[in-house]
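From the pipeline queue, job 12 of 40. The input is one protein chain; the requested action is below.

Action: predict structure.
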Amino acid sequence: MRRLAGKVAIITGAGTGIGQGIAKRFGCEGAKVIVDYIGDPAGAEETRRAIAQSGGEAETVLADITRSDDIRNLIDAAWNRFGSADILVNNAGMEVKSDFWETPETEFDKVMAVNMRGAFFLTQLFVRRLRDAKKPGRIVNISSVHEDMAFPGFTTYCCSKGALRMFMRNLAVELGPLGITVNNVAPGAIATPINEDLLADKRKVEALVRNIPLGRMGTPEDVAGLAAFLASDEGAYVSGSTFVVDGALMRSYREQ
């Protein structure tokens, strides 16, 4: 069964990592996908090609979600190419390591712009289109275990993900009467390019894995399955919650 057949999804940061995994899964599930990316188009094209090979349809769109014109173009692309959109996955994100007392304003502004501000205003435009068309919809934010769990050296990242948690909770209440569900998926340690420095250090990886009861780092596919459920009709009565995908890391983690 293709759970997302007939649906159109916009997925930010879909040229790599978790976003790419979600886009491929949605395509396999029957969705038509707008593949947002920034930077190198090769990853986005790989995503599009994989979706096409599975029998789906996709279009790549270069859009920086911190720019108002770009997010407008991203929303327009879904309506112009596929006639509408039903699902928005706010996946694009970034992190920068720095001691709190050394963190410059520019770093704070950049992390918040990508992780929170971009999601806020892209979601706003998406909701306006759904409201005007009197359509229900699904919003899935890719958050982090660090919306709740301390991460020394990454205060800007934690602040942005904590804000995304409250954003989701508030919108679940405010948008519920419009038939729009809103949920967060909070990955733990996932093997993606954002963690390339960690993955290159075997000792750090081994120390991390010792804190994960399931004994391994996660994969984008581990996250994608849950996102597909939340975006599907099976998740129609699920809203206002964060779903953790971390191999029980949060329950056993200790700083080394």
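Job complete. The first strand starts at residue 8 and ends at 11.
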